[in-house]
Specification:
The protein has 419 residues and is an alpha+beta fold. The chain has four domains: 164 residues, MoaB/Mog-like domain (Molybdenum Cofactor Biosythetic Enzyme, Chain A); 51 residues, Molybdopterin biosynthesis moea protein, domain 2; 86 residues, Molybdopterin biosynthesis moeA protein, domain 3, CATH 2.170.190; 71 residues, Beta Barrel (Beta-clip), CATH 2.40.340. The chain contains eight helices and 29 strands. The strands form eight sheets. The chain has a six-stranded mixed beta sheet, with no helix packed on it. Helix 1 runs parallel beside helix 7. The two termini are 60 Å apart. The chain binds adenosine monophosphate and magnesium ion. The site of adenosine monophosphate (AMP) has 18 residues, from helix 4.
Length: 419
């Protein structure tokens, strides 16, 4: 009788051997950064409609802010040379007043003061303003204590923005505050990139739609609603390409149709090298398949390729891995395609509220949330635990090397909102 052989593979079989062809996360990111460029079209857009869109050209201030010297407070304006000594001072009041939008046309005589209200342009003869609250007046004179510096409570023309300055650079995603800045310097229209059109396709014979009946062996498609919503939250145009069965010709037709209306496509599932991994097989037929074996957890190979000129990000089917790969790889890549440039989330160091022995050889992302100034991780690292994704408010990123984490060790936390 021949010898009964023990299994060749142990539980530990996926431990990373040293010095093998696993691509470190940073190297994978650097490759994406090198190889992608903006693909979105551009158009002219009213500033009011442009918030959330990405500038396609630098913007130059048409006018300075403030356009002319003005007062920052309600008070009384005068020429600083009028003041003798350190005070207290008394100045006669000139007739009239200066208010925002209501220019005081006359010259204020030296050693006179004029009533002046916030935002009013400084009239000739006024370079300094004393705050109303610091003044006594009988209607004909004002009295106040010194000393007061020349130029107090005034704003210089252009102290904020000078006409001709570049105020915002191409690649910026416009914020509500940017709408204020643009408007303040007289810019009514900007060149923007069209929102990037990103298709989302789920693959797998086992998938059914939530709301439909699921029989044994079927699971609900969780990735599609997640990815569509994430893309929308990023200001992209999310295009639902539906679910593809594990049938190569059907998937092929769906990719053909998707490529016609998308700038990029995210697929999930079928991206490994198995019999039912039709996504990678089809991309392989185009000759463009690149299986990126990236040294990260959670994540299986990323199948990257081009379909009819459209970049495809073949994400792992597992929802936890799908989201992590989307945040870490697809997010910066899509940003680059959309004209926003390469962006990596900053994250910040926080004391760990957990303990873990992390092995060398790959980067790890843990589902995490902040609690009382510490970062906690989900009770299980099981990559099938979708509830942990929902529990999490961000990811802890552990470096490629080994790390012994005890309570209080500083670890990097990246809230989902920073991706
Ligand atoms: P695959 O990458 O196709 O081998 O899928 C890996 C695992 O993820 C399998 O357990 C699939 O059933 C699961 N999966 C694939 N796509 C989805 C999806 N859209 N929603 C939820 N689970 C999925
Ligand atoms: Mg599958």
């Amino acid at each position: 009788m021949s010898k009964l052989e023990a299994p060749k593979l142990s539980n530990d079989c996926f431990a990373l051997p040293a010095g093998v062809d696993w691509t470190p996360v940073d190297a994978a990111l650097a490759m994406l950064r090198d190889r992608l460029a903006p693909v979105a079209g551009t158009r002219v857009c009213k500033v009011g409609d442009a918030v959330g869109l990405i500038l396609a050209r630098d913007v130059i201030a048409m006018r300075s802010n403030p356009p002319e010297p003005n007062t920052a407070v309600d008070g009384y304006g005068f020429a600083h040379v009028a003041l003798m000594g350190d005070g207290p001072y008394e100045l006669p009041l000139a007739q009239g007043r200066a208010a925002a939008g209501l220019r005081f046309e006359a010259r204020v005589a030296t050693r006179n003061a004029l009533r002046i209200l916030t935002g009013a342009a400084l009239p000739d003869g006024v370079d300094t303003v004393v705050l109303e609250e610091d003044v006594r007046t009988d209607g004909a004179r004002i009295a106040f204590n010194g000393p007061i510096k020349a130029g107090s409570n005034t704003r210089r023309a252009g102290e904020d923005v000078v006409a001709g300055d570049v105020i915002l650079r191409a690649g910026r995603r416009l914020t509500p505050a940017d709408a204020a800045l643009l408007s303040a310097v007289g810019v009514a229209e900007v060149h923007v990139f069209e929102a990037l059109r990103v298709g989302v396709l789920s693959t797998g014979d086992e998938l059914v739609e939530a709301g439909d009946d699921a029989v044994a062996g079927q699971i609900y498609d969780a990735n599609r609603p997640m990815l569509l919503a994430q893309l929308r939250a990023w200001g992209m145009e999310a295009i639902d390409l539906g679910r593809a069965p594990d049938e190569r010709d059907v998937l092929q037709n769906m990719l053909d149709a998707g490529a016609k209306k998308c700038d990029a496509i995210l697929t999930s599932g079928g991206a490994s090298a198995g019999d039912e991994d039709h996504m990678s097989a089809l991309l392989n037929e185009t000759g463009s398949l690149a299986m990126w074996r990236i040294a990260l957890k959670p994540g299986r190979p990323l199948a990257l390729g081009m379909w009819a000129g459209v970049p495809i990000f073949g994400l792992p089917g597992n929802p936890v891995a799908a989201l992590v790969c989307t945040l870490i790889f697809a997010r910066p890549a899509l940003n680059l395609l959309s004209g926003a440039g390469w962006t990596e989330p900053q994250g910040f160091m926080v004391p760990a509220g957990f303990a873990k022995h992390k092995k060398a050889g790959r980067r790890e992302y843990l589902r995490a949330r902040l609690l009382d100034g510490q970062v906690d991780v989900f009770k299980s690292e099981g990559s099938g635990r979708i509830s942990g994704l929902s529990w999490a408010e961000g990811l802890v990123e552990l470096p490629d090397g080994a790390l012994e984490i005890t309570h209080g060790t500083s670890v990097k936390y990246i809230p989902f909102g920073l991706f």
